[in-house]
Amino acid sequence: MSDESGPRAIAFFDVDNTLLRGASLYHLGVGAWRRQFISLADILSFGWNQTRFLYIGENGVNIPRLRLRAMDIITGHTRDELVSLSHDIFDSRLIHRLWPETVAVAHAHLTAGREVWLVTATAQEVADVIAERLDLTGALGTKLATVDGIFTGQLIDGICHGSRKAVVAREVAEARGIDLALCWAYSDSHNDIPLLELVGNPVAVNPDTTLRRYALARGWPIMHMKIAQIKAARASKKR
C-alpha cells in the first residue's frame, strides 16, 4: 500500500470476522440481555450461532434470519438507548476482539489520505459507534425504521448484506465523485463478492472456503490473522 498522496479513494471494510473476531450482533445481544431487553434463552441462542459463525463462517449460519432476530432486540426501544448500548459493548467486548492487523490497515488508509467506511449488516447506529470509536470516516449499516424516535422493528431498504453492500458502497463513491477502480474493499465472506468485485483493489481477510478459492483464482491478496495475534497485541499494550 502506498503512502503517497494521490487521487481520492475509499477503503470499504466489512466488520464481522474482518475487522473483529466473531459476530458483532452476538455482543449486542449480550449487552441487551444485561439491560434486560431479552431473555436468557435468547442470549443462549445467540451464543450458539456465534460459535458456529466463528468456526464455520457464514456458510453455517442463516445470517439474514439471525440479523432479523437481532433487530427484534431493540424493537420498542429508542435510538438513544441503542447508541448507549453500542458504546457499552464496544468498551466491554468489541475492543478486545478487534483484529489489530486489520485496524492498522484501516488507519494506514486514513494516513494515506483515503476515506475508510465500514459496510456491515449490523444496525446503522452500532456501525456508527464502531466507526466513531476507531476514528474512521463513517459507516454503512442496516437502517431501522423509527416512529417518534422508537424502533418499530421494520427495516429501511432491507439488510445491508450481500449485493446490498455493493449498492450502498457505489452510492457513497458516486456521491463523492470517487472512481471505484481506485478503491479498496476488505471482507472474509463469499457473500461480499459483489462488494469486492466493485473495487479495483479487493482483499480477502480470513476468507471462508468459497471466497478463498475465488480470491486465489483471481490473484486477489489474502490476509490471514490468528487469535495469537490478538493476545500478543494485548500483551504489548500492558507493557
TrEMBL record:
<dbReference type="InterPro" id="IPR036412">
    <property type="entry name" value="HAD-like_sf"/>
</dbReference>
<dbReference type="Pfam" id="PF12710">
    <property type="entry name" value="HAD"/>
</dbReference>
<keyword id="KW-0378">Hydrolase</keyword>
<protein>
    <submittedName>
        <fullName>HAD family hydrolase</fullName>
    </submittedName>
</protein>
<dbReference type="InterPro" id="IPR023214">
    <property type="entry name" value="HAD_sf"/>
</dbReference>
<dbReference type="GO" id="GO:0016787">
    <property type="term" value="F:hydrolase activity"/>
</dbReference>
<dbReference type="InterPro" id="IPR006385">
    <property type="entry name" value="HAD_hydro_SerB1"/>
</dbReference>
<comment type="similarity">
    <text>Belongs to the HAD-like hydrolase superfamily. SerB family.</text>
</comment>
<dbReference type="InterPro" id="IPR050582">
    <property type="entry name" value="HAD-like_SerB"/>
</dbReference>
